[in-house]
Amino acid sequence: MLTNIKKSVARVVMIVAAALTVVMVAGAFWQVFTRYVLGDPSTYTTELLKFMLMWVAMLGAAYAFSKNEHLAIVFLKNKLKNNKAVTLQWLIDGLVIAFTLAVLIIGGWDLATSTMGQRTPILNIPMGWVYMILPLSGTLIIFFQLINISERKKEMAEQQDSSKSDGEVIRE
């Protein structure tokens, strides 16, 4: 059930990020067209593209966590065996959640709410809405990470059950 919810949320995140990317490409073409063909560059596209890039990057990071394909340094983990590798993975999971909670959710929320009064120079939107991607993506990352942990625990339990049943001798 959690896996299905994770897949659905990840799909929405991917669709939103893809839509923003399409708009970014169109905006970049528009910027080039107005600058070099019309000789009068569009005033709003540069600012809009910068803000959209932030949103796409942070949504992409959350999506990577949904697929468990986030940037990770696996060198040490690959050198460790069995229990040590599992312990390291639990430590990494805890650090990811703690960092995401402290920096993206709490810090991002503070940044977003404290800058709601500042307006962007060209688009005239509150900067807080631009920065709101930080707590949003942080929430998504923790959501996906907790489900990844749950799935990993389930896999480990299934492996233990299968190894126990492989070692049992059936007596009649």
UniProtKB/TrEMBL annotation:
Mitochondrion keyword on record? no
- Give a single Pfam family match: DctQ
Keyword flag rRNA-binding: no
**Per UniProt, which keywords does this protein have?**
Cell inner membrane, Cell membrane, Membrane, Transmembrane, Transmembrane helix, Transport
One of the entry's Gene Ontology molecular-function terms is: transmembrane transporter activity
| Compartments, as annotated in UniProt | Cell inner membrane
Q: How does it sit in the membrane?
A: Multi-pass membrane protein
Q: Which residues form the Tripartite ATP-independent periplasmic transporters DctQ component domain?
A: 24-151
One biological-process term from Gene Ontology? C4-dicarboxylate transport
Instruction: Report the GO terms under cellular component.
Output: plasma membrane
What top-level branch of life does the organism fall under?
Bacteria
Q: Which InterPro entries does its entry note?
A: DctQ, TRAP_DctQ
Residue ranges annotated as transmembrane are: 12-33, 48-66, 87-109, 129-147
* UniProt similarity note: Belongs to the TRAP transporter small permease family.
Cross-referenced PANTHER family: 2,3-DIKETO-L-GULONATE TRAP TRANSPORTER SMALL PERMEASE PROTEIN YIAM
**Protein name listed in UniProt:** TRAP-type C4-dicarboxylate transport system, small permease component
Q: What is the lineage of its organism?
A: Bacteria, Bacillati, Bacillota, Bacilli, Bacillales
